[in-house]
Design a protein that fits this description.
Elements (H helix, E strand, L loop, with lengths): L1 H5 L4 E5 L5 E10 L6 E9 L8 H15 L5 E7 L3 H9 L3 E10 L8 E9 L24
Parallel strand pairs: 3-4
Antiparallel strand pairs: 1-2, 2-3, 4-6, 5-6
Pfam family, one: Acetyltransf_1
Protein name: N-acetyltransferase domain-containing protein
InterPro entries: Acyl_CoA_acyltransferase, GNAT_dom, NatB_acetyltransferase_subunit
Length: 146
């Protein structure tokens, strides 16, 4: 609910004609100066509506919001390093890996923690595309700016 109260414009829902939830994107704006950006916290598409281009439509919607409302330099998102299908999908959408975040996702019970990839897509404001130049080392969660 905190996202919805602070960034209501960044919560977009896709609904089927019969009223079923097809998918959604949830994000926010954060950062300072050249690190001002849109952050995708979640993008989800129900299994029966996958492979129809809905994730692309939702991501495009958030990217346009980040350009026209937030005037952001880039959009970023975190994805599990083991989620190869999602990584490929984001690459197809124009995202690239900026850095690896060690142990970002907590393990459950006996399971170990898992690394995240911080993926970014430069927006028109970042003319030089400086925001997507890959970092030359992995970082720990406590080193994240936001």
């Amino acid at each position: 609910m905190s996202y919805l109260s602070k960034w209501p414009e960044s919560f977009v829902v896709a609904e089927a004609p019969q009223g079923q939830l097809m998918g959604y994107v949830l994000g926010k704006a954060e950062g300072e100066d050249h690190l001002w950006h849109g952050h995708v916290s979640a993008v989800t598409v129900s299994p029966q509506y996958r492979r129809l281009g809905l994730a692309k439509t939702l991501m495009d919607s958030f990217e346009n919001l980040s350009i026209h409302t937030y005037n952001a330099y880039f959009v970023d998102l975190f994805v599990r390093a083991s989620n190869h299908l999602a990584i490929q999908m984001y690459q197809n959408f124009g995202y690239s890996t900026y850095r690896r975040v060690l142990g970002y996702y907590s393990g459950y019970g006996e399971e170990p923690s898992e690394d995240a990839l911080d993926m970014r897509k430069a927006l028109p404001r970042d003319v030089e595309k400086a925001s997507i130049v890959p970092l030359d080392r992995a970082v720990r969660p406590e080193e994240l700016e936001w």
